[in-house]
Design brief:
Butyryl-Coa Dehydrogenase, subunit A, domain 1; four-stranded antiparallel sheet; 48% helix; alpha+beta; Butyryl-CoA Dehydrogenase, subunit A, domain 2
Amino acid sequence: MSLNFEIPAEAKAMRERVRQWVHDECIPAEKKLLAGADYKETLAALRKKARAQGLWCPFIPKEHGGMGLGPLANALVQMELGESYLGALSMNTQGPDDATMLTLLQNGTDYQKEKFLKPLLNGEKRICYSMTEKAAGADATGMQTRAEKKGNDTYVLNGEKWFSSAASVADIALVMAKTDPDAPRHQQFSTFLVELPNPGYKIKRNIKTMGIEGPLSHILGGGHAEIEISNLEVPADNILGGVGNGFNMGQHRLAYGRLRHGMHNVAMAQRALDMAVKHVTSRSTFGKPLSERQGVQFMLADCASELYIARLMLMHIAYKAEKGLDLRQENGIAKVFLAHMVHKVVDTAIQLHGALGYSMDTPLAAWYTHIRSQRLVDGPDEVHRWTTGRNVIKAYKQFGTTASAAGGDLL
């Protein structure tokens, strides 16, 4: 009896289709944009073609217009889409919209699904998620934005939000606010669906970051906005998931976002490694091909090892998701590892390109400045490591071994 790592034929075929799509359509479209093509026209044409080929909303059930892929097939698809910054957008599976679509699908009322989810699934609108606040940071339960009830059918929100990704291109905002400060800690918050633009939801600025910005950065939804929420009136019918369920629902939403970041990181790292090998196999130094230098081969070997571990992590998590098993420990471990993995591989690719890698003549330098955020977004490394470490101790106390908290169920 052997352990089976065989990917189902239909999942493998879908991965190949998406890989071909990214290389034949998305990467060439990137070049068109750099040459001055109109972004909206280019993306609209891509999306029309993708949808005609059945490449649309991979993780959404077929009855809602998606591809109906399970966790494993979706992971394989996402690990291809991340090679191009138009990949996820072309198939309407971009963040932060994707995780919020899933949240609406699982928790929305019939009214909310018709009014808010349907246009998101059709690619007609985009949504942002306003949870993070300066005052709270990594501790979401420290948020101070308040929602006071006005009559029986309206809430009035006041406060501020920080790093609301894609708010500048959003037509809808999902806003978390404190509805009951006297409730148990994790039951004090609710989330509200807010139609934009709205005078009570004001984008003060897109926060400048270390990430190199191009002319398309914010149009693509890459901005991170600081929001002022002032006397924002929201109908009670727009509370998603019920009063007091905002925090737990938000954590579930973030869990998918962490995985999606990791899947796209694998794709970016793979493209960076391919670029590095293409470069070193075409260059000679001091009378010898660069690719024959042992030091260079060691660097490539380290990158290959990182990618191998990353893929195994994601496949194991996808397997657990398919089986409905608890994957929180693995998710936290993978979130941290994958953020460091992509940084290491892209950094190595820059080094192997020499001054060319440090220049803006390849995408590597821009990638490098953006992927630093991976160790912060959806929870900083330290919070995930803290949780992981506590679970290691709990496992030992319960079972006399830490194996169950360190991938031991693989064996």
